[in-house]
Structure formats: structure tokens, C-alpha cells
What does this fold into?
Amino acid sequence: MIAQLPPMGWNTWNTFGTDISEDLVLEMADVMVREGYRDKGYRYIVLDDGWALKERDASGNLVPDPAKFPHGIRGLADAVHARGLKLGIYSCAGIFTCAGYPSSYDHEYEDARLFASWGVDFLKYDFCNFPENANGKNRYLTMSMALRASGREILFSACNWGTDESWNWMRSIGAHMYRSTGDIFDNYQSFLRNFQGQVSHFNASGPFCFNDIDMLTVGMGAQGNVAIGRPCTDEEYRMQFALWCLAGTPLFLGADLRKMPAAMKEMVQNPALLAINQDPECRPPLLLGSREVNVPVPEEERGDAIEPLRAIRDQLQVFLKLLSDGSFVLAFCNLFETEQDVICIFSDLGIPYHSGMVVRAEDVFTGETREGLRDYLRLKVPGHACRLFRCRMEALHG
It folds into this structure.
């Protein structure tokens, strides 16, 4: 069975767009093996849009671009599998893909069989150029059934951007993960918008069907296909990765792994962070408290993909995430640009002062431990930063 835990891997789109090739994919696969990504759980390497020719062949089949993929997708899949990785591919529920390549509308079953014959392990299924008179829910169900009939176990990554409140039905139609947001861009506003837009829907995410808030931009440094607006700072990238782990959303890296800064590589392979994302119970985070303020987006940070008058809300947030071993995570997020005091009152956790319990909290990033906490935890959080603590209750002695 697949997708018992949030899937992890790497996708071509964020950095390379349609400028992809067999050589690029295999080079990235080698980096994933050599530099430890695979062994930390990043197993899927996904071809996004742009792998095919612009027309189907005389038999109606999709055709890999021979200039980009001289050994075809079958040959690429064999090479990826030999490295202990899994290969993903891309299509679309519409007539054409987002970049204008032939797509799978009315070709679901033949395409699913073709992908299976190539040894594909993962399908990202986008939503561009979808006919106005068609039914999106039915078309995603149709591809889900086609994959089930293909004779191969293929992870179904449905990407309809949250249209028709997809968190209410994606599990029912057989998706293993589903994109619930618009595209991410490599800036603070974009990743924060994707996370905040789904806080109230993460409860619909869990084993075998995960809410996907898009590929990570961690480590991109404003280099690549989705570089729009002011690039993220390292602290903002740490916030992004912390939020993705907290949410239990799929972790798909989008940076050029050959150029990943050492600090970012260490972070995305941090066992303590990955354990939060990959916890067997897959419980969603609970927003315990927030302080609301409207802050207009600075003009220099807007970019083409950001609404000019969009404001950040909930400037200080505290989240709780329960883990399978009896511990729990507290996340303190500061959306202000300057350092702030943030407080968590333990009665909001169900651990009131009279419970006879104290809390032991270990900083996930630094390892710093606080013992014997009772009633509350107060700390300073840098601007545009998130601090995570893995906590345990202990009986109060004496």
C-alpha cells in the first residue's frame, strides 16, 4: 500500500520548468542517492510539464520528446529504479497541459496503461485547459479508476488547486495526495498564503490521502522557474519547512539539489523535523491561538502572482501537533518582521496548572531543553521565523 505517510521526493518544475531532460533527471537522482536524500525518505523523482512532444502519435499515444529523453520514459524509469528511487510523470485533466502539451482529457485509460507500461510510479495530474462544460470531480475519479485498472501501483497526485472544495472529496475518489492551493512561488508571501489557506482543512488530510500545499522552494535562493518577488531569507526557508512538517503535507523539494546550500540541505534532512512530518498517526496541527493584524504587502514584494492589497493576518500563531509516541509539538510562528514575545498557556493544551503535570520541551532546531515548565511557555521568536519544540508531559514531583 502506498502513501501511508506523506510522500517525499523532488520535482523538476520549481527550478527548471519545461527545460528538462534525461541527463538532468539522472544527475539529480545521483545527487539524491549520493548526498543522503534518498535514505532520509525522499524517494520520488517527478517529471513535471514538458516531457512530451506537442502531438500524440498516429495511434493516439503520448510520445516522450526524443531530444530530451533519448531512451524514452521506460529507459529513464529503469535507470531511476536501479538507483533505489521511484519515477513520477505529469499530465493534466484538461485538453492541454499548463505549458500547452497534449493532456489526458478523454484519454485517461489509454494514458494510464501507457504510464504503467513505462514503469511509472507516480502521476501528478494538473487542471489547466479544462473544458467549461466538464465535471472536474468526475474527471479526477475517471483517472483514479484508470490508474487502478492499469495493472501497476501508481501514486495519484491530484492537482486541482482546491477547486470545488476538493478537500471534501479527494479521499473518496482515490487520490493519494491532492493540491489544495494555487502554485507556490519563491517568496515569503506565497508559501505563507498556501499554508494559511489550508489551516482549517488539514483535518481532512491523513494516511493514504494527504493535503498537498505544493512543492517546497527551500534553498532556491531566487534561482529558477518560480522565482518571483523578494527571495526568502534562510529564516523564512526554515519557517516554510517547519510549517510543511507541522502540517503533515507531502515534502517535494524544488531547488536544484546540486546547488543546495549546506544549511538548507542539513535542515531538509533533519531527522527530528522529518519525524514530525512522517509520524505514523498523521494527526493535523491544531491552531491554539493567534493575534490578528492587517499588514499591506510592500510594493517591492508583490510580484505578478500576489494580489496587491492582500494582507497577512494572524501575526503571532501557536500550533499543537500530537504525535504517536505520546509527545507533542508546539510551534510558535512570528509573522512580524521584528522579534516578538510569544506565549503558550498550557491550559489551552489541556494541561491546566492543577493537572499535576509539567512539560519538558526540546527545541527541534537547536536541541536546547527546558524542564519543569508549568502553566505556560513564553519565548522570543525572531521576525518571519518559526520555533518548534517537541514536548512531553511529566508528573510533578514534590
The mean pLDDT is 94.
